Amino acid sequence: MTLTMARGLSAHLERLDDLHVFPAAATKVLEVARQPMSSLADMERAVAMDSVLAGRVLKLANSPMYARQTRVSSVERAIAALGFRGTRDIALALAIGGIGSDRSPWAQRAWVHAMAVGWAAKSLARHIRHVDAESAFVTGLLHDVGLQLMITLHEEETNRMLDARGSLDGTDLEDERRLFGTDHAELGAAALRRWSLPDGVSDAVAAHHLRIGRCGVARPRDVALLHVADALAGAVPLCDTVEEVASMAMQHPSAPVLRAVRGVYVASAELLVNHWDRLADFG
Questions:
Q1: pLDDT one-digit tens code per residue, 272-282
Q2: What is the three-class DSSP state of 6?
Q3: CATH annotation of 101-282
Q4: If we measure between CA atoms, which residue out of 154, 102, 159, 129 comes closest to residue 219?
Q5: For residues 66 and 82, what is the distance between their CA atoms, to the nearest angstrom?
Q6: pTM of the model
Q7: Under a CB-based contact definition with an 8 Å cutoff, are residues 201 and 209 in contact?
Q8: pLDDT digits over 174-187, tens only?
Q9: Which DSSP state fits 279?
């Protein structure tokens, strides 16, 4: 990291602290999670203090991603179904992932894409060895949180940059580094570490635009899963059929790392295609 980038990153993190963008409900969830004697009831109270967050957790627990036999009718039952750790990670991800989503059409698109990547990552992870599906969802949902933070910190500049780019695709991050002295992968990972998200999540977020083999301390399989989930989500608006979406994801250079059969890709693609228009509602 260059001195210029370090200064840029540090300044952005300090501004995030000054603006208090970390939601109060997320802070309470973290406090409960850190107490060894905390119970599911404590977690329920932490989530319920924010009606929007409580609604998001309940919707997600009832979403097709969990394919429950019976509908969960209360936050209490949703938390019981998700478990203490699952609720902690999902509540934090939902609270943080929504940052800046009302700032512009680009911010709303980023939120829908993040939700799609989270769903795709969880769906794929169910069939991949040594990958935790719940952590995969959280990582997928938060992979572009740095971009949402850039929109929050520098709304006009970031929206102009995205207008010029014409898409959310940030494979080439030079424009971000020139504008902000950092890029969204680095900023997002640093913010997640500051906010005590699991190391595996922040490490994968930091590496999600790097090639496998150059992903630093992140686990290659976690990064590969994020790459392929991102490819699945990106393919849905471009393809006419579920088979085409699955094929595009399977062609990603990181796909061989996952060793998943075609049926896994097809099932994940089908989940996204069938619920694409409703993804924003589940967040």
A1: 999 998 887 77
A2: helix
A3: 1.10.3210.10
A4: 129
A5: 10
A6: 0.90
A7: no
A8: 889 988 999 999 99
A9: H
